[in-house]
Amino acid sequence: MVKVFIYPTNSFILSDLVMRAGHEPLVVMNQVREKVTTLGVDSPPMNITPEDPKTGLKYAAIEVPAGVRGRMALNGPLTEQAEIAIIVEGAPADFGCSGCNRTNELTKFLVRDRLDRSKILEIKYPESDEQIHEFVYKILDFLNTFND
Amino acid sequence: MTSEVQTNVKDKTDTSDTYTKIVAVSSKTVMPGDAAMAAYAAGYPVKIKETCYGLVISGDKDDVDNVAEAVRNLDKNHIFIKDRGFPVGDKRRCRADRKGGQRPGFYTLSEEIGKFGVVGDALDIYYSDSPRIKAKWPERVDPSKIEKLIKKFDEE
Question: Is B51 inside any structural domain?
């Protein structure tokens, strides 16, 4: 079992496919869970403490907007744990609170920089039914090559 | 002399060991209601919320994993599971407490759940001996073609 970084970091399809293949998806939901279920009176309701921007500073410089550093406090540790990665380009759902493009670019850069190219699958987001089929096959084939 | 009162009653606001999963059902044979019945029948002490797309299950990690797996076994390739950060009924997410509006994360969920029908069919084919379906992907334009076009316009 390997730890798989997925991008978009909250993707339902990718997270499910990774679990199906018997690996562990590194998803932002688990980072959020740690924040929102831990008792904290520092800064309710989300428990963002002064430590979080410091964690973010490890990945982004001080000149970078606070929002990017805050997001990197969640995304950054995921990139460090990753053993392999699946990066989907052009996902239309990549907006809202997960749609900060600078954070996304930085997160993808850190993964590409850290991992060997053979351990990263880069694939386009599927638009048609046939493309969804090929999307699923490619991801499962890639994941199965890392089975023990 | 100090006296310490020890209690084994858990603080109700402490949910640090709560683990939550979303189960989305996109099956021709299993309805979200059937999935809920299977989850209750699994008999684990978890909190289950029935939704239009499936279930949200909260509880201890092992219990939630076991219930989610029991539900997935109803139709393995057409029931999908993912982790969720907020527990079931959390006031920061619950629309009843937030006085309506979209569920945060609705658009992402809606986009992906809409594709689960085809993803399930793809999984059926992947795990069987059926021939795989091939697709055409948009390709990048050859730069020499653009060069030719520019030259053509220049000449005109």
Answer: yes
